[in-house]
Amino acid sequence: MQRLSNFLKMRQKQMVRPWALSAPIVVLFLTVPLVRPLLHPDPNGMSDDEQSRMATVQAIVEHHTLAIDETLFAHSTRQKIQRNGHVYSDQPPVLAALLSGPYWVMHQCGVTFEHNPLWVMFMLTLLGVTVPVALSAGLVYKMGRLFELSRPRRAALGLAVVLGSGLVSYATVLNAHASAATLLLTAGACLVQVGLINELGRSAIWLALAGVAAGLAAVIDPPAIIFMVTFALVVGAFRWKLAARTAAVCLYLLGATAPVLFHCAINRPITGDFIPAYLRPQFDPSMRPAILHSDWTDDDDDEPGGVWQGISHFLGRAGDVLIGAHGVFTHFPVLVMGLLGITMVMHRHWPSSTKMLASVTVGGSVAIVVLYCLSRADWGDAMFATRWFVLFLPLLLFWSGAWLRRSHRRVSWVAAGLLLAFSAAVSLVGATGSFPRDGFDRYTALGAVQNLLNPPSPTAGEPMLARQ
Fold it and tell me: Is the pTM of this model over 0.85?
């Protein structure tokens, strides 16, 4: 009778949370029709980044190697390196290795790059980026418990984070930044869950999962290494005894070690070391620190303006990052609400782990922005807005939940709504073509609109997807 009673109680529980599913469903409804192979079926318009990843997936499944010599994209992509007589993609290989599993299934069913290229690319983009971005809205809904929001507000927060941060712009093309951003949100959600449980024994699995997610983000998009390391500070900030905190940090680091070792195992044959190819100056000179460039240094003490010219150059690049044609705030001004939420967290009696997570969000974001400002990276490669910053923008906007939980005057709600509406509109414009082959040479939202209204004509002559 007791078992029957327990079974009846389980049947009475709500098995499906409509509010939890609402935001992911809306994101899928908006993004699936905009996935690049559907909206822009001409393969000649694919970016080099997307081609190099597709090439690695094809090489793994069809040729059992990471060398892309015999793939359909080997001659067309410009993001490749040569080593030991073979050609490889210059991107970290872990994302392609993960996507090789779904492609193996498709290959076994006769759906291949050779005979069904658009269908394969659509499915890989859907599984690798679109669905994870939609699920990230559900993750934010789960994390919203931290702010004690009602379910409708948590669902609204999840949708606002995906649409307002620019994450949805990169949900329609295969790339590492959106996938890594989702993984960082996953790690953050696990840490929030640990704080809600507040007991080491019941939190062990969440700590390990947080490490795995952060480690995967780091090996897919290497700037996420900053967050993988600093998230350990969040684990160490839980209000437990020293032994418990030490054990928690060890569990987190143990989880993070697994994807890092996996990356090392498959990356070493390509580059000869454990560092991703595009972080090595000999493969990509654009990532050399700009402070080493002659324009930044003053080898002759008598030469005027050397150091000051370098500082001015850095400030100019920082301005481009924040309010320029690729600027974060010129595209997504609603991020101001995230920063405002962080200040509220710091000024109230929040747990130390929550304050540490907020601090890590700001610190990691600033560190990545500074690194790219110091680098010689070409802003023309930043694509829509700044693709390199998609990694942390959703996590940054998540903290607007601290503002959302409080009551405000009507004018404040109207201002926040306008900021969100503008940011969401720009993000959806970006979703129509965030990764054009030759990038953007103007304010990227305007460029995306022009590309949408006047798409480039299909390339004449031999198709790109053909063996050469």
Answer: yes
